[in-house]
Queue: 2 jobs
Job 1
Amino acid sequence: MSVERMKVEREIVVPEEPGEVWESLTDPERLEEWFASDVELDARPGGEGVFRWGDGDERRAVVRELEEAERLVLDWDDGGSVAIELEPVVDGTRVHVVESSPDFAPAFEMRACAWTALAAA
Amino acid sequence: MDGSRGGVDRVFAALGDAGRRSLVEAVATRGTATATELAAELPVTRQAVAKQLSALADAGLLRATRAGRETRYEVTPAPLEEAVEWMVSVGAAWDERLAALRRSLAKRT
């Protein structure tokens, strides 16, 4: 993975079993209940997806990794990606999300010296 | 240039630290924040937050203003803006989506 990326991580525990949550991650109709307003997804490695939102936003993705009821990784067409992992826990399923940004490197060059000082602190 | 390239790598190394990243994100989300406010919502002590905020301000990434006995911080704009905006908007989108996922699952059971 490139170092020139930001990451956002989120995690929740839901009471349902991983198999049930997996359906919500991979079935387009279920995805339309929480992820985007209009979803097409060919849920297999290399499969393509199109996600549309009510505000007119549209993102295309390719399935990079898919392990049933465990892990789904989508590569966005802007260079970003999202990995969603499911883990069975005592009270249900832990859903862990990591979204990685596209490259921002040029925007950072000016502030590089400041960050160098910070990284060394 | 090799020099600036190394600097950029360090920028991202610093942002690769989950604690610093969540602090920058928390300050950006709130607009402005003090160490006391942030420590109340993060699993770290006020002292640890204050130290990290001070280091981030020394590095020019946060702007510090005195407000009574406390120091109030805000994210400095460019050139962090694009990346911080991404982090805040994507973070907010996932908060909403995961809440919607929870509701969607609950509806079925």
Job 2
Amino acid sequence: MNVVTNNNIKCTEALAALRNVLDPEIGLNVVDLGLIYQIDFDEHGNKVYCRMTLTTQFCPMGEAITDGVRNALQNTFNDDTVEVDLTFDPSWDCEMISEEGQIFLNR
Amino acid sequence: MFASATNTTLKNTSYKVVFPFYLYAAISFLAATVFLLTSTTAFTGHYFHPHILAITHTMALGWGTMIILGASHQLVPVLIEAKLYSNILAYISFILAAIGIPLLVYGFYIFDMGWPAQWGGCFVVLAILSYLINIAISMAKSKNESIHAMFVFTATIWLFLTAILGLVQVYNFTELILPSGSLHYLTLHAHAGIIGWFLLLVMGVASRLIPMFLISKYSNGRLLRWIYALINSALLLFVVLFLYPGSEVLLFIPEITVFSAIGMFIYYCHCAYKQRIRKQVDEQVKLSLLSVSMLLLPVLLLIIVIVFLISSSVEKVNLILAYGFLIFFGWITAIILGMTFKTLPFIVWNKVYHHRSGLGKTPNPKDLFDSSIFKAMAIIYISGFIIFAAGILLSITILLKAGAVLLLLTAVLYNWNVLKVFMHKPKQL
């Protein structure tokens, strides 16, 4: 699934950091799992906005995953304020898993 | 524009609510296997034996029900997509059950149906009532209708009815409340609990969790609604046949109805397995999937029991004993042994590492328990289960002893691994 962004260069940097955040149950990172919908950057306000979802609402590991995303982005963009927003519209679907993710799960 | 990640949709049931249930269940399993080893001779006689009643209630309430209550406080929010209404009611439920179960089991063990069993039974009923209230309000507050949640709610109603009937049976020993003796109602009490509570609950939760763990595209709400309707109709029909007895042949109707529902559930799990994206299936899920097929064993045995009942009007006590054993030490135990290590390590991992997520390498939840001990436990368990079941069917004490030793060893290894998960300390980053 393609991640919507207003800054392709910074988004690539953010996605690289987010590839270190794993769903603890599945063992796959949040990017290839298709949980990240949007990453926007506010150059003037020094803000990073991340819109993401979870594989299921009230996922018992949900807090750990969103904390992981926030921590990874904060570590990458030290001087910026990071805001992580959670949405279930659209809700996550297996089709959102990337090709790399499918290969990982098919091993 | 967006809902905040810190809003309530992410606040899960606290681990502090769930942990005591898991710990209590683990100790109960150990206690039940100790009783099993010290009471093997009871398994060569009639099933209405004080020690067998004590073992059955330790397994049904202390082991099966306690772990299900614990896990469901965490999983019900996933099923209904809403918060658990009250952590306090969950604590109350635990405390009441934790006091009631040993009193009840003690009463059965010494066969004193006086105050220990009566008070124990009252505490258990109140524990179930507080769980029922918690689930009912949580569901009422949820905006989503879910067939899985309906399974859980209806199962809890059946559990409550089972416990009420059980309590009345206990009082009926000392003062006649019911038209017949307590033993007469044992079949009704047992099947309301086994099919109404355990079967409905396990199917409701497993039909959500198995596709989730396998990352399967499969979903079939219509099939699940059929399964739900068949099981409840079968149970209601069984109640009618119990209250207004006719020919024993009629018992085949609810039996076949449940059998069909189980067949459909196995088909559902099979489809979820076939359409899975995640090819590697871990040992815990394998053991849980095995337990689904283990469901067929008691059902087939029950058909034989009914055939004997029709052909000779004789109760084959060893077959009935084996039937109960296949349910509590077979199907229910297999699913718990598997699912404990699919849920508990994640709850502990979440407690220990969720603040560190994304900041560096953390262990995987599956690293929190010893997988080689898990594998050994699974092998010893299956061997012990088969040997003990053979011991009951053939009435051979040495087989019962050998099977009981292996099941005790299973409980020791299970407790070892559960404690290892509980005692996990965070690794330095």
